[in-house]
Model the fold of this input.
Amino acid sequence: MAVTGVDDNSQPAEVVTQDATAEVESGFAGFGLPESLLEALERCGYQQPSPIQAAAIPELMLGRDLLGQAQTGTGKTAAFALPLLARIDLDARQPQVLVLAPTRELAIQVSEAFQRYAACTRGLHVLALYGGSDFRDQIQKLRRGVQVVVGTPGRVMDHMRQGTLDVSGLHALVLDEADEMLRMGFIDDVQWVLEQLPTQRQVVLFSATMPPEIKRICQQHLQDPAEVIIRTQKADASRIRQRHILLPHHQKLGALLRVLEAHGPGGVIIFARTKAVTVTVAEALDAEGMACAVLNGDVPQSLRERTVERLKQGKVDVLVATDVAARGLDVDRIGLVINYDAPFDSEAYVHRIGRTGRAGREGDAILFLSHRERRLLHSLERAVGSAIEAMEVPSDAEINQQRLDNLQQQLNDLLEQPVPQERQQEVALMEEIIQRLSRETEATPEQLALAALRLAQGDQPLLVVPQPQQAPRQGRQGERGERRQGRPNSSMERFRVEVGWRDRIKPGHLVGAIANETGLDGRQIGKITIFDDHSTVDLPQGMPPQLMQSLQRVRVMQKELQISRLDAA
Ligand code: ADP
Ligand code: MG
Done:
C-alpha cells in the first residue's frame, strides 16, 4: 500500500519530552508518555495512576513481557494500553498491537478505552474484531490501516488464516482476562495465535487467577516477564462470608425480614440503589418494630453524622443506605451487609461488602439477585476473587433457633449486670416474692424461672407461628396473637382480598378498613392470613350483598380489596 497522504497523516509524530507536562502535575507525567496521551488522560479525568498502572507502565515502556494478576476494576486496560500506544509507529499503517479478550463485550470495551486514550493522537486507528459483526466491513477497515486490533480469539484467527490480518508488524500481544479465555475454551486458540507471531514481540498477560494452564502459557511464551500482583481488598474480603439468594423481586422484602431475624443482633447495613427504595425498606422495617435509620443523599450532612454516631453506639442496629451515602463508612460493629438491590458494578460491590469484616472481625455479606441479574454473579466473584455461595431464605427453624439464642443471651447478660441503684428496692421485693413462692408452692427454681420467662413473654409467641398451606410470608408479628389458627369456625366464612404481603399490609390495616366500611366490631372479624399477593379474612356468615359490594372498592395500601368468597374454606 502506498503511503501517500490520503488523510491526516501529514502531522508529524509526537515528540516525547519527559518534563513537558511538569506544570500539569499529573501523576502520569513521570512515565515518559507522549504529550498527546497525557492530554487524553486529563480529558478522561485520570489524575493518579492506579497501583497496577504504577507498577506495570514503567516495565512495559521498557518493552518487557509482563504477567499481571489483578481483579477487575483495578485499571488494567490503561496499564497496558498507555505504554503500548506510546510505542506505536504512527507512520506504519499496519497492526502493531493485538489485544485478545474473551468476549465481544470486553473487546468492544477495551477498544473504546484505546480510542479514548488515543483521542489526542492523530493518525492512530483502533479496530475491534469480533464475531457477529460484518466480516467484509472488517476487512475494509483493516485494509485502510489500523495499528491496534482488539478482538476475540475466534474472529482474530479467521482473519489471520485468510491473510486479512497481517501479523508481520505486530510487536505486542495482550491477553486480557486470560483465565476467562481459558474458561471459555479459547486456550488452544491463544496458543495458536502466539505461535503465529513474530519472534520479536512483547507479550502481556493479565489474569485474575493463575490456574496451571495459564502458568504454562507464561512459561512457554513469555520471556523473563515482569510480574505484577495487585490484591485489592482481598485480605479484608477473606474474613467476609459472601452469599447470595436468588429470588423474585416481590419476595425481597419478606426475605429481608427473615435474613435480619436469622442473623441476630449486631449492626447491619442494607444497600439499595435509589433513595426511594431506602425509604420503602426502612418503612417496612419500622412497621416490624425494628430500629433502623436511613442514609441517603437527601439526608443533610449533620443528620448523617448523627446517624453514623448512633449506629456506632448501638442505638440503631440497621442502616438502609445508598452507595454514595455509605462510601467509606467505617463502623466496627457492622456484622452483616445486605445487598438488597444488586450493586451497579463489581467496584460498588467491593465497596459495599467492605463495610463489614472491619478491624479484623468476621463479617457476613448477602446479595439478593433476581434470576435476570444472575449473570452478574460471576463477574462479582471474579472481582473479589472468591466464591459467593448460594443460600436459601432462612427457614422458620433457623429464625426460631436465633430467637432462642437471643433469649438465652439476654438472660445471660442480665445475670451479669448489676442491678442499677434506682431499681434495687424493686428487685428486692421481687426477690421476696420468689422466696415466698418457693416456700408456699414447693416449686423448683427451674419452675419458678420458667414461670417468670413465660410472664415476660406474654401473649406473643416466642417461635414463628407455622404457616398452613402455601407458606404465606409473615413477619414475626404478622399474625395477631388473639386470632386463632385453623378453619373458620361454623359461624364464620372465609373471604379472599387482593392485597398481600407485597403491598406491605398488616392485619390491622384490614381490620380497620373492613370495620370502617361494614360497621362490624373489630372482634367480629376473625382470622386474617397474609399471603404474597392476597390475604384471607374470616367474617361472620351471611354478610349482606350490599356490604360485600361496598367492600369491593375499599382501598388498603392503595389497592382495592376486590373481596370474594372462598368456597373451599
Ligand atoms: P480492569 O480492566 O482492571 O477491570 P478497567 O481498565 O476497565 O479495569 O478500569 C476500570 C475503571 O477505572 C474504568 O472506568 C476506567 O476508566 C477507570 N480508571 C482506570 N484507571 C484510572 C485512573 N488512573 N484514574 C481514574 N480512573 C481510572
Ligand atoms: Mg479489563
